[in-house]
Amino acid sequence: MADGWVSGSAAEAIASRRSVRGFTRQEVPLDLVRHILELASRAPSMNNTQPWKVHVLVGAARDRLCAEVCAAFDAGVEGEMEYGYRPHEWRSPYLDRRRQIGWALYGILGIGKGDREKTHRQHARNFTFFDAPVGLMFTIERVLDTGSFLDYGMFLQNIMTAARGFGLDTCAQAAWGSYSAIIKRQLAIPETEIVVCGMALGYADPDEPANALVPPRESVETFMRLHE
Q1: CATH of the domain at 181
Q2: What is the pLDDT along the chain (228 residues), one digit of tens a residue?
Q3: Among 1, 121, 196, 224, which is 20 to 30 Å from 145 by CA?
Q4: What is the tally of structural domains in the chain?
Q5: Residue 67, in any domain of the structure
Q6: pTM of the predicted model, to two decimals?
Q7: Residue 24 CB: number of other CB atoms within 10 A?
């Protein structure tokens, strides 16, 4: 444990994790970011391959990337993610859950159905990391396959859980994947790597309405099957 930092219980950190969509400008010590990544690297991976690569963006580097991607988004320029993230077919119950959380968020924000301008502005906030002072960008080598993506998910979850232990919040953001060309150029990422996602990291803004959203979870009985 790093000096001066005391983390809470793992159960508390997991239970309090949420996708925060509004952060204060309070700086996050880079030593703490490094410590969180160090903790997260204890995630399991196939034959200890450790497939994760992380770019930490703060200050001018963060602002440059946000500015260029925001400009591209406003101009209607959008690429394709470099791997299959979304379902091949949206069907129940996944489509139902997607609609439920979308309606709940937009309801809190006062965005009516069909309000394209407000919808656009809200989506654009992804590309400012929702004002978080730290942006994280994750990549993986193209030669790796589905199993390594499963390993990567455990690494990302470790980051989000560890962040909660130190009073920080996060938002994992697949949206950045549509702008991999800009990200790669700005961060000098080779074409041998795939942009997995981005992540906002910082201190939650208590005055941000979107942060009142608490996504529902299915009961254990709906996904657990006990075999005795």
Answers
A1: 3.40.109.10
A2: 444 444 558 889 999 999 999 999 999 999 999 999 999 999 999 999 999 999 999 999 999 999 999 999 999 998 889 999 999 999 999 999 999 999 999 999 999 999 999 999 999 999 999 999 999 999 999 999 999 999 999 999 999 999 999 999 999 999 999 999 999 999 999 999 999 999 999 999 999 999 999 999 999 999 999 999
A3: 224
A4: 1
A5: yes
A6: 0.94
A7: 15
